[in-house]
Amino acid sequence: MEKLLWCFLVLISFSDAFGQTDMEKKAFVFPTESDNSYVSLKARLKNPLKAFTVCLHVYTELSKTRGYSIFSYATKKQPNEILIFWSKDRGYTFGVGGTEVLFKVPEVIVAPVHICASWESTSGIAEFWVDGKPMVRKSLKKGFSVGTEASIVLGQEQDSFGGSFEANQSLVGDIGDVNMWDFVLSPEEINTVYAGGTFSPNVLDWRKLTYEAYGEVFTKPQLWP
Question: Residue 93 pLDDT > 60, yes or no?
Answer without folding.
Answer: yes
